[in-house]
Amino acid sequence: MHIDQIIKEKIVEAVDSLYDQKIEADSVQLQNTRKDVEGDVTVVVFPFLRFSKKSPEQTAEQLGEYLKEQVDLIDDFSVIKGFLNLLISKNYWLSVLEDAANRPTFGFKAADENSPLVMVEYSSPNTNKPLHLGHIRNNLLGFSIGEIIKANGNKLVKTNIVNDRGIHICKSMYAWKQWGEGKTPENTGIKGDHLVGDFYVLFDKHYKQEISELQEKGLSKEEAEQQAPSIVAAREMLLKWEAKDPEVIELWEMMNQWVYDGFDVTYKELGVDFDKIYYESDTYLVGKEEVLRGLKEGIFYQREDQSVWADLTADGLDEKILLRSDGTSVYMTQDIGTAKLRFNDYTIDKMVYVVGNEQNYHFQVLSVLLDKLGFDWGKGLHHFSYGMVELPHGKMKSREGTVVDADDLMAEMIEVARKTSEELGKLEGYTEAELAETYKTIALGALKYFMLKVDPKKNMLFNPEESIDFNGNTGPFIQYTYARIRSVIRKAESNGIQLNKQLTQSISLSEKEQELIKSISLFPAVIKEAGDAYSPAVIANYIYSLVKEFNQFYHDHSILGEEDEAVRNFRLVLSQTIANVVESGMKLLGINVPERM
RNA sequence: GCCUCGGUAGCUCAGUUGGAUAGAGCAACUGCCUUCUAAGCAGUAGGUCAUGGGUUCGAAUCCCGUCCGGGGUACCA
Description:
The protein has about 600 residues and is α/β, with parallel strands linked by helices. The protein has 21 helices and 14 strands. The strands form four sheets. A five-stranded parallel β-sheet has the order 7-6-5-11-12, sandwiched between helices. The chain has a four-stranded antiparallel β-sheet with strand order 1-2-4-3. The chain has a three-stranded antiparallel β-sheet with strand order 8-9-10. A hairpin with a 5-residue loop joins strand 8 and strand 9 (about 310). Helix 4 packs across helix 18 (about 510-520) and helix 12 packs across helix 13. The protein binds one RNA strand of 77 nucleotides through helix 14, helix 15, strand 14, helix 17 and helix 20.
């Protein structure tokens, strides 16, 4: 049992015995003892004053005496201003370390066949342009939260819904047909998603041009926007697509494939993947059927113009359109259809949607609609809502060229990692392949940690002028600490020193060493908290503080230079265990750690 | 207008189930490599926790008002 739990239960006992009052164990407030005060765990005694009818000091004193008497693990206590500081025995901490060191999956809860199945949807790109920084945040959060969900003892299915149809796709298609001159990824050497994105931008350029020409001829802005030849052609293409015109379908399939091939490269580089991919072109008609079923069952209603609506005013929401008057589907319709297909494919216990916070309202509505349509998990779906990535000048806008491209950013960061590594020159003897692998590990570690260390709910700022740092509270700092530990362990091994995971009880521990064990012992609770709060940032901040402490220890203590064999062994086991926690913690963020850097 | 999220050091962010003197990193300045990796460690400086009230033994944290900013409120996705 964890020490906190033991103390809480003993406090309940003490309050009962001393003040004849029953309290709940969870109501006992514990906190880590302040650094400048001797002790490990602090009990806040103020809440007990109304039972004890004594001063805070006297109450704390009485409780302290009781605990010291009754609990072997408590060596001593002190009372400062109504805070009861407990000193935990050294042997307890040694046993905690021993336990962590001997468990390969320390902190993780394993799933079995009865565990809940959680489906996480993330990424969800459009196929008309390449991925940018906003998608990176989505992908990293989605992948990481999946890992965290798994670590908390759930089965996981990662899924992606690709928005592969609609007017925006037709814009790229029309532009390619009109001005593409037969360009392909093969004959230009341009990555497929970028090539298609270029045509999307090209479309917009021509479209804007046409609008201003029409306006000069005396049309209003609205008229010009409706009548510009390009948009008329794109709309026509969409109609042909829906009518399954062979020529249009062929073009659509070809250009979408270019994009998928491009995305695959980006996903692979980012290190994210999916168990099952859905395509909107397969789901939107299913959604329409579901809406019509809902209409028939009286869940929805139809207006005179034939459009279908859901009245959610009883649920505190608005009325929501589900099918347009021409019978075509809207965004919501597609999400209903996708949900239906997923429900058929898997026995989902919980659905998590990783989608930006601009869609909070949409998911509130979706949850109610799915519930009304009879999906068990509809009511309990979780919208993992995250904030936008902002640039110094504001939001990213694809058409205005103010986006930070995912592929470019990764390539730049790998280049910075290469330069930095070469300057430091610690990778002698590595092959070209090993070097490339290490540069990538560091670069992606920096990028991922940068994105994941901030609270997902909040908007975050990315300044491309100041490239992502490699020093301080960063991924490479953590990776560096891991590499340092590995270096020591390798040296120990080559000197014939064996790690013994049975620790000698008689050794004395420095303050820093004890603090490190305390930090290690928090890992399981941190994983749980990250899962409950849907926050990879909780993991990131924990690893950072652990690693920060380790570096202080490393600076002040010699590991291999220690004469006392039992102490040296302890320090090796401590270091190795921290390396393991760092490695598995970083894995929860989707970040790899290098053996050397 | 209504709904919703946010405002903590020059900058980027922790800390928010109410607890002791509000923490990191970056940027600035100062030390520490003949000893296990200096992508490190130690130090100096930097705060009316947007603001005004309230609740409490105790408020960055909870409640109310105000100011500022983001998002939503589409037969767009």
